[in-house]
Specification:
Length: 584
């Protein structure tokens, strides 16, 4: 069974990590967000209520400034606010109001919350502004603070705008005057907050003796209240304020908590859909992340696998400026160094192998050389010894001259053999220094033919030299003469009696070629490479009369190799051809 790869493992781990992290966020939100948000909201309301209380104590005589500050508190905290005494009587209940100045100079506060909630569209159309003349009908209350008159209007009339509302109570009072001040919210907002505030006041007043004791001790009351008709959750804060006169007044704040519960319920449903979408997003991000992270690791693993199989063909590192990129570059350098070292090792091994084979060949060649040399010298030495013994024993005087001539002939043969062996040894040692000169091959062939005239005459042979566009060659003339002499002597020994040996010299800008053709027996294919070895003779009988010393072609090979020239022996339909290519 195939083991899971690092990409799959990283993908699974990433999915698990993100899923746990995302699940913890959603779970914490579902379990703790509502309580946290509620506590935070209540804390902010309490802090802002304390600020308002401080402002109220410092700006007690300026009703207009207090109203505006109350409006800010209500807008900032989305709460309702009233100022009452210990008995629950209102000192300031409605910050939304206008102030009317009657003809006698008396100012009247006109509470606008009730009529705003019922006739918002008509109020918007009326566009009441400072300086407008209004007629109002409604209920009037009186209090100790200035302005002392408060009206709760049921009907308002503005010239040019018509009537707003209708009279509900027949005993309602009518007044008229000019608008001097307006404290109003946006008339596009609707709400029943002020009504809930009045209902809460009726619910909690009069206070219990225990509540009064705590308030007298300057302890703020915090009460959670569920409005029975709508079931909305609210929090009531009652903060005591002690005036300079010693009289105790209360800041009564009502804050709606229902929106927190509704929002939390909506979020629970929202998180169901968000959870599904989030999980899909986690899968996508995890897949991308795992691929992004593991791609360079997979590439490095593939590089390592190729290196295990001695494949160092990688030639491109990761294009990353980080630890993985540095590792890839290091592996590439290591791969190149290993490839170089391995090539050098292979070359050294091959060289060692070649040296060993060369050593074995040399040992075999030396052994063969000594064997052949001893064999070649043994025969003439035996002949010389036997004929010398005959002379020593006193042979017939008539045969003495023949014995002497045989001894001289065999001695000359041994001398020629020893000379060839010494020349071959010098050539193989590599101690020969070539003295290159420019000369014509055809002239050298003519001189050699003249030296061999008696050998040619004995076999009724002739030599024809044919130069074709001949150009001089640059070589060592002494050693090249030895090559041509050996080739010519070899051709004479193997040519048919009465035939002609043809030597052609042909040149161009890059080379000169010497062709030497003779008619006679062909060289067997399996022996064509053997003719260049020491002491090789084409005749199986190894006849010394026709085969020579067997070193001529081997010497020629060594001389041509020393010059760097190419050579070959090939069969013709009626004989054999030797070819030498003299490169320029």
């Amino acid at each position: 069974m195939k083991r899971p790869g690092v990409t799959l493992k990283l993908f699974i781990l990433t999915v698990i990590f993100f899923a746990i992290f995302y699940g913890m966020i959603i779970l914490c939100h579902l379990l703790f967000f509502g309580d946290f948000y509620q506590k935070n909201k209540i804390t902010n309301v309490e802090r802002n209520l304390e600020k308002f209380a401080s402002y109220y104590v410092n700006e007690e005589g300026d009703f207009n400034k207090l109203s505006r500050e109350a409006v800010k508190f209500i807008a900032r905290n989305k709460s309702q606010l009233a100022i009452v005494n210990m008995d629950g009587n209102l000192i300031m209940d409605d910050p939304w109001h206008i102030i009317i100045k009657k003809a006698n100079g008396q100012k009247v506060i006109v509470s606008m919350s009730f009529i705003k909630n019922l006739y918002s569209n008509e109020l918007i159309a009326a566009k009441i502004q400072e300086g407008d003349m209004l007629k109002l009908w409604g209920r009037i209350d009186y209090r100790s603070t200035e302005p002392s008159t408060v009206m709760y209007p049921e009907k308002i009339y503005k010239q040019g705008a018509g009537e707003i509302g209708e009279i509900i109570e027949a005993e309602g009072t009518g007044i008229s005057g000019v608008v001097t001040d307006i404290v109003m919210p946006s008339l596009n907002t609707r709400g029943q907050g002020q009504g809930l505030l009045i209902e809460a006041l009726y619910k909690w007043f009069p206070l219990s003796e225990e509540q009064k004791k705590e308030l007298m001790a300057s302890k703020t009351q915090e009460i959670e209240w569920i409005e029975p008709w709508s079931g909305t959750r609210n929090v009531i804060m009652i903060m005591p304020i002690k005036k300079e006169t010693g009289e105790m007044e209360l800041l009564f704040s009502l804050t709606n908590l229902q929106e927190i519960s509704d929002a939390n319920q909506a979020l629970r449903l929202f998180y169901i859909y968000l959870g599904f979408g989030g999980f899909c997003l986690i899968l996508g991000l995890s897949f991308f992340f795992s691929k992004f992270v593991t791609r360079p690791l997979i590439t490095l693993n593939q590089m390592a696998k190729r290196m295990v199989h001695l494949d160092f063909s990688t030639n491109k590192p990761l294009q990353q400026n980080d630890e993985l990129g540095s590792l890839s570059n290091s592996m590439l350098i290591m791969s190149q160094n290993l490839d170089k070292a391995l090539r050098e090792l292979r070359e050294a091994n091959q060289q060692l192998k070649n040296d060993m084979e060369q050593k074995q060949r040399m040992e075999k060649t030396q052994q063969s050389f000594f064997t052949n040399a001893s064999h070649e010298l043994k025969t003439p030495l035996s002949i010389v010894k036997s004929f010398a013994e005959g002379l020593q024993d006193g042979v017939n005087p008539d045969k003495r001259e023949h014995y002497v001539s045989v001894i001289v002939e065999e001695t000359e043969k041994m001398e020629m053999l020893i000379k060839d062996m010494l020349d071959l040894a010098r050539l193989e040692s590599g101690s020969i220094q070539l003295r290159r000169k420019s000369f014509l091959l055809s002239e050298m062939v003519e001189r050699i033919s003249e030296k061999l005239v008696y050998l040619l005459r004995n076999r009724q042979l002739s030599i024809i030299v044919v130069p074709v566009n001949e150009l001089p060659v640059l070589a060592d003339p002494d050693w090249i003469e030895q090559v041509i002499l050996n080739f010519t002597v070899n051709a004479i020994r193997h040519a048919e009696e009465g035939s002609t040996i043809t030597i052609v010299v042909q040149s161009d800008d890059r080379k000169s070629i010497l062709f030497m053709d003779n008619k006679g027996e062909q060289i067997p294919e399996e022996q064509q490479k053997l003719i260049w070895e020491r002491f090789y003779r084409g005749e199986e009988s190894r006849s010394r009369q026709t085969g020579g010393t067997g070193l001529g072609l081997s010497i020629a090979k060594q001389i041509l190799d020393l010059h760097g020239y190419d050579y070959a022996a090939e069969n013709l339909p009626d004989g054999v051809r030797f070819v030498v290519i003299f490169h320029r």
